[in-house]
Amino acid sequence: MNDIRINKQRLWDSLMEMGEIGGTEKGGCCRLALTDLDKQGRDLFVKWCEEAGCSITVDKMGNIFARRPGKDNSLPPVAMGSHLDTQPTGGKFDGVYGVLAGLEIFRTLNEQGIETQTPLETVVWTNEEGSRFPPAMVSSGVFAGVFDLEYGLSRADLDGKTMGDELRRIGYYGEAEVGDREFKAFFEAHIEQGPILEDEHKQIGVVTDAQGQRWYEITLTGQESHAGPTPMPSRRDALVGAARIVELVNRIGMENQPNACATVGLMQVFPNSRNVIPGQVFFTVDFRHPDAKVLERMDQALREGAAGIVEEAKLEMAFEQIWYSPPVPFAEQCVSSVRKAAEDLGLSHREMVSGAGHDACYIARVAPTSMVFVPCEKGISHNELERADADDLAAGCNVLLKAVLEHANG
Ligand code: GLV
Ligand code: MN
Ligand code: MN
Ligand code: MN
User: Fold this and answer.
1) What CATH number is associated with residue 110?
2) What are the pLDDT digits (tens) for 335-377?
3) Residue 56 and residue 232: Cα distance in Å, rounded?
4) Whole-number Å distance between alpha carbons of 357 and 350
5) So where does Zn(2+) 1 get bound (predicted)?
6) How much distance in Å is there from the Cα of 82 to the middle of ligand 2?
C-alpha cells in the first residue's frame, strides 16, 4: 500500500475540466459562490464522486460531503477538502485543487482496490472566498460552531441577496444539520498563494500555523456637491477621507513588518459621477498577522488614525470590524503526518505559516487538522494568471494520500 501513487494526468485533466466552468479569457476562473456557475461546478463534482462510488450528503450551508466507505463505517471519517468558489478574477487552482485532490485519492484507491479502516470524505465548503458573501470561510465556520446557522444563511452580497436564498435557488440548501458529523482528522491541500516554496525550490509546504485576520467595513459620509462652484476649503469630500485611510492602512502594514498584511480591496463611491464631490464612500480593510497581539496593535492604530482623519476632513464615519479569525496552530499529529509523508516520498519540503485563510482554520477547532501546500508560479494567486505545475500538484496529492492513509488505517 506504501507504493501507491495518484494519477497525475487525471488530476490535471479534472482541474482543467472544472476550470472551464467560469473559465476566463486570460486562463483564470470566475465562479463566484452560489452563482449558476458554482452550481455547475458542484454538480460536476457530485457526478464525479458518484461515479467513484461515493454517497453524497449536503448540509444546510450547502457544504457537500462525498463519502467513500471504509471497513468500519461506525468510525468517524478522515476528511479532506477545500472550496470550489473563486474570486472574480481568480485562478483554476485556489480551492479547487484541495477538492479534486480528495477525489483523485478516491479514484486511486478504487483503482487499486484498497479499502481503508475508517471511511474517507472529501468536502466542498461553501463560500470560502468571502468575495461575494463576506466573511470568508463562513460555512466551515458554521460547521465548527464559530457562527450560528442563521448568521451564515443571512450573509448578503452587495445586491442584498442572501446565502440562504441563493442556496435554495441553486438547489444546494441540503437537509443535513450543519456540524452534525465528526472527523477523525481533516487535511486540506492548497497552492501556497505566495512565493516562498518557489523561491526556495521546495515542492511541499508543511503548514504548521495560519495567520490571523481582521476584516472591517467603513462608510464615510460627507456632502455631495457640485465639482465646479464648491470652493475647496468648504468641501466635505468622503473620497478624500477614504484615500487618507487607504494610505493609513498601507502604513500600518509597512510599520508592522515582517509579516503584517494590510489591504483595502473594495471601494464604492457615491454617487460616482465625475462632476459631483463624493458624498459617501464604502470600503473594506483586510488586516493579517500571525501574532494576535500585533493584530490588536494594528486594530488600535486603524481606529485612532481613522478617527483623526475623519475629524480633520469633517466627515462622519461608520466603522465596524465584521470579522476576526484568530491565528491557528495546526495539530501536531497531523502536521507530523504531512512532514513524514513528504520525507518518505523524498520530496523537498519546509515548514510554513499560511498567509491566506482556509477552511482548515475553522475545522481545526473541531478536528485534528493540517494542510499541505504546493508552489504556484511567482506566488501569484487571486489572479487569472495563477498557475501551478502538474508535477507539484501530483506531489502534494501523494503527500495528502499518505497522510490520510496513516490516519485512516492507524
Ligand atoms: C480567501 O481566499 C482569503 O484567504 O482571503
Ligand atoms: Mn483557497
Ligand atoms: Mn482564495
Ligand atoms: Mn483563502
Assistant:
1) 3.40.630.10
2) 999 999 999 999 999 999 999 999 999 999 999 999 999 999 9
3) 62
4) 19
5) 83, 94, 190
6) 7
CA of 354 to the centre of ligand 4 (A): 10
Whether residues 227 and 346 share a domain: the answer is: no
**Cα–Cα separations (whole angstroms), residue 303 to 284, 297, 318, 345:** 14, 10, 11, 49
In a domain, residue 1? The reply is no
- Predicted complex: ipTM over 0.90: yes
Strand 369-374 relative to strand 204-210, pairing: antiparallel
- Let me know if residue 258 belongs to a domain: yes
CATH of the domain at 274: 3.30.70.360
Atom of ligand 1 nearest to the CA of 95: 2
- C-alpha cell, 132: 461575494
Atom number in ligand 1 closest to CA 286: 5
Residues 33 and 177 in one domain: yes
Name the residue of 86, 128, 286, 376 whose CB sits within 8 Å of the most ligand 1 atoms, as the mutation to test its pocket: 128
Both 204 and 332 in one domain: the answer is yes
Q: Evaluate if residue 231 carries a pLDDT over 90.
A: yes
Q: Which residues surround ligand 2, an ion (CB under 5 A)?
A: 94-95
